[in-house]
Write a structure and sequence with these properties.
Shape: globular
Number of helices: 0
Distance between the termini: 34 Å
Strand content: 35-45%
Largest sheet: 5 strands, antiparallel
Mean pLDDT: 91
Number of strands: 7
Length: 85
């Protein structure tokens, strides 16, 4: 019998990687004003992002400038579970 891993939604604090190799922690999960559908807001481990958690003057999370990035959930995979809150 083959055992399949159970996929769980990403949650705040998880360490993730985008499909183009960027690493960071999940800081936001949900819908945004700038595009339809759900998005993952992440704080990158290096200054490779596009924002500080703010898009068009709406703050979704807080981080240092150029460390914030939004990606579609299908483009992000879990590397390590964050601390359980």
């Amino acid at each position: 019998a083959v055992e399949l891993a159970v996929l769980r939604p990403l949650v705040l604090g998880d360490m993730v990687q985008t499909d183009n190799g960027l690493h960071g922690h999940v800081r936001f999960v949900g819908p945004t004003h700038f595009a339809q559908g759900d998005w993952i807001g992440m704080e990158c481990t290096r200054p490779v992002g596009k924002n500080d958690g703010t898009v068009d003057e709406i703050r979704y999370f807080t981080c240092t400038a150029r460390y914030g990035l939004f990606a579609r959930p299908r483009r992000v995979r879990l590397l390590q579970e964050g601390p359980h809150v």
